[in-house]
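Structure tokens please, single chain.
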Amino acid sequence: MTDQPRDQGNQTRRGFVRTAALGAAGLAAASGRSAATADQRPTRSKRRPTKIRIGTRVSPAWLKGKNDDDLRFLKQIGVDHVDITLDMIEGYGEHGVFTRKALKALIDRLDGLGLKIERANSLGSFYLNAHLARPEGQKEIDKLKTIAGHLVEFDIPVYGIQACQARLHLAGGGNHWIRRRGRGGYRYLHFDLDRVQSLGLKPKYKVSSDQLWKGLLNIYRQVIPLVDGSKTRVAMHGNDPPLHQFVGSPQILCRFKDFDRLFSEVPSANNGITFCCGTRYESGEDVLKGIEHFGRRKQLFHVHFRNVRGTLPADRGYSEMFVDDGDMKMGQVVRALDAVDYDGVIDFDHPVGITGDTRFSKQYISFAVGYMRGLLDNL
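Here you go.
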């Protein structure tokens, strides 16, 4: 009886060894299959790199820093492209136009710092008569055409010719914003439509939507042919706030369908949109669907990558928040841009106030640029 248990024990040990060996072989095979599967998965290095680039807007004050240190700061934190206002070019502030030589001087100065102009944005006050379809507006359009010629010559990617903002018609000023505080006490701007309407602001003159459309289309029909076929494209930002009626005056570019009308009335591969995520969200429309809509049509030329909380239709107001602190998931936004093969710039657009921040909101700019770079690196 003692032999049987011993023999059974031997059988058990032999079976265990055999089972373990088979198991190890199975694990090795499975591991090999897993490794092969992992090798087949697309890695970041094997994927096509995104074409999206990072930029920021600058104003004439950025040109006044000692040794251009303010502009050097932008390059140091990873900004390669700037969105300028045309009053940064000598002559524009005085005459609404500038020379080829003046534009080249600014380009050379920025080139020396490793910065490229991505978008050159006109100021609405310099072509207000043209917007209002007044006879004297033709001289202003002629200046816009001259500017277009200079930008085309130097291959500036985006020329901003904007909608007529209702505030240009106001008789006097008025504070449209309320300052509020967010996490940790950072300062942001809040727009309250009911409050603004209670201020009693009045336009200086009567304006109609038809008048504004007539003026804008006249501008575009004269300027767009000058950029057709070039590397320079005209990009429309639209009205901000996106309200068709604001302080007693109409506005005409507030919804996706308004942009569609402009692009169909003046058809051109060089006629498209500056897609402001904040303004488009404020309007109550779907930002991701808007990116797909204009991106698939190759009408997406520039993107303002800012975040807000609240919409005008639902909340009758909105707040301009930290880029990571609004209603939108900005990771989804950047993935939507990449999905339509967007090859332009994203910039943070509007800064918020951080305790102890220095001139030009450099702390916030650093945060926003780092945040955008992180999103792009993780596509």
